[in-house]
Specification:
This protein is mainly β. The protein has one domain. The protein contains 1 helix and 9 strands; from the N terminus they run αβββββββββ. A hairpin with a 5-residue loop joins β1 and β2. Bound molecules: zinc ion.
Length: 140
């Protein structure tokens, strides 16, 4: 079911163009929609990976989805808080988003659990805390 942490680790965790943090502290993920084949993709890319069209435009994606899979990561580049939980969340648009999963112990997570988008401090660099998007379980 779960991918190994090593595989997951290949994925970019911080995607500056892919998230907009609103003034109220809420976050929105930004993806693209292809004008030719209607594929939706996250994070945003200049060329549609399905049909190679450059006729793509930015869209804001849903801030809720369901948990597809996750893994606890114990080894990370220095400055990252470990262990952390990383996973894939499926959005209603058919987009699968790789993100940190916060706000719940990993043994409390379940497949298809409803999740919503938030932001979290995920590490530390020279400039201070590194904040990015993350998903957290919807409170029951
Ligand atoms: Zn396309």
């Amino acid at each position: 079911m779960a991918q190994s942490a090593e595989e997951m680790h290949e994925q970019p965790l911080l995607a500056g163009d892919a998230v907009r943090v609103e003034t109220d502290g809420g976050a929105k993920l930004v993806g693209i929609v292809c004008g030719d084949c209607e594929a939706k993709v996250f994070p945003p890319v200049p060329v549609c990976p399905e049909c190679m069209s450059e006729n793509v435009s930015e869209i804001e994606l849903s801030d809720q989805g369901s948990l597809y899979t996750w893994s606890v990561v114990h080894v990370a580049p220095k400055n990252w808080k470990v262990p952390y939980t990383a996973g894939y969340v499926d959005l209603p648009e058919g987009v699968r988003v790789f993100a940190h999963i916060v706000g719940a112990d990993s043994d409390k997570l379940e497949m298809d659990m409803p999740m919503f988008l938030t932001t979290a401090v995920l590490g530390q660099d020279e400039a201070g805390p590194v904040e990015s998007y993350a998903f957290t379980p919807v409170a029951k």
